[in-house]
Amino acid sequence: MKKNLSSLSDLAGAFGKAPIEHDNTNKVDDDSLVYSTESGRIQHKKAEVITASDGFAHVRRETKGRKGKGVVTISGLGLPSSELKTLAKKLKKTCGTGGTVVGETIEIQGDKREVIKEVLEKEGFKVKFIGG
User: Taking every annotated instance into account, which residue ranges of this chain make up the domain SUI1 (predicted)?
Assistant: First the structure.
């Protein structure tokens, strides 16, 4: 009686034991797990933290670290990142300039504080100018 045993389950079957069934549907979420042979690198979902607003949109003109170029930063809005991006897109379009969202602040190129104030007030924010 010569059989070709290619795996451990075949060997267990030869001795009359039932092969072990692995259930892959019951996966445990372990925060310390970095790599798994089943799924590769584990990407943990990070919860977005939104800082609460004090009721004012703080508009500030900055030039520090930008080689003298003026940038208007808007902070204190208390919005999630998706809504910040849509608001930044609207501000960039009305100002006719570039800009970006960094963390919880919106940066708009140039000195367009008055135009930004009008747009933010139409969106329902109270605007406070900070700095000179």
Answer: 61-124
